[in-house]
Amino acid sequence: MSTSAKPRYTLGSVTPIGEDRHPMSQPQPLLPPDIHHVAASIEVSDYTTDGVNDAIAKRYWPCVDELMKQGANSITLAGFPIASQLGRARVLALLEETARKTGAVADAHAEATVAALQHFGARRIAVASRWSDQLNKLVTEYLTQAGIEVLTITGVGQWAKQAFSMSIEEGVKLSFQLGREAMRKAPNADALFLAGGAWRSLAAVPILEEDFGLPVVTNPITQPWRLIAAGIAPPVEGWGRLLAGKS
């Protein structure tokens, strides 16, 4: 398709950092070419409370304005640590205000993850996380407030700097390692959540689903899944139950 052709749908993301701080490309192979993805970054200094609050206060609305200028039909706040530091009530209020001001669909990785887990009827989950204990506590609180019980959550002490400096190989290896660790600790979980986007965990999803016989969700794939569930994008086979549109 010509790059000058008008997209059928434009998916907008407010991301934690931009390409200059995270230069490894993250293509969008899960969506057809007539659905475009545009992004603007809040350039968070770290996933600490102060870092997140400062980035949201100073740069969230300029990012929203930039995405709307690019024709975004929806705007998604990316990054589970961002949402967790804000807290669920504040995220929901921010999304409501975004939708009201722009007329676009407003979403967040965190809320799309909750919806995906609910789609599978998952009430008790295992979480494979790379983050610090403090971030893990907030992730657990966010999910708990959404009615999802976290049976176990792993951690290797990462903050933003460590998360975004990982190589692709390191991230994929960790996603398998921590996914399996979480399931060993919570074998009766309804689903496994691989938390975070920086570790490129998509490759682990179908394999871990086959290993454990339950749905595996990562927050980045919940964004295209929203379009699949709405009938805007077609299901994608080979990358797990969620993207295939299965329940």
Description of the molecule:
The chain is α/β, with parallel strands linked by helices. The chain folds into two domains: 9-109 and 225-229, Rossmann fold; 111-219, 3-Layer(aba) Sandwich (Rossmann fold), CATH 3.40.50. Helix content is 45%, strand content 16%. The protein has helices spanning 49-69, 80-86, 88-102, 109-119, 133-145, 160-165, 168-185, 204-212, 219-229; strands spanning 9-15, 35-41, 74-77, 105-108, 124-128, 149-153, 191-194, 216-218. The chain has a four-stranded parallel β-sheet. The longest helix is centred in the N-terminal third of the chain and has 21 residues, at 49-69. The mean pLDDT is 91.
Number of helices: 9
General form: globular
Q: What is the CATH class of the largest domain?
A: Alpha Beta
SS elements, strand count: 8
Count of individual domains: 2
| Average pLDDT rating | 91
Topology:
Elements: E1 9-15, E2 35-41, H1 49-69, E3 74-77, H2 80-86, H3 88-102, E4 105-108, H4 109-119, E5 124-128, H5 133-145, E6 149-153, H6 160-165, H7 168-185, E7 191-194, H8 204-212, E8 216-218, H9 219-229
Parallel strand pairs: 1-2, 1-3, 3-4, 5-6, 5-7, 7-8
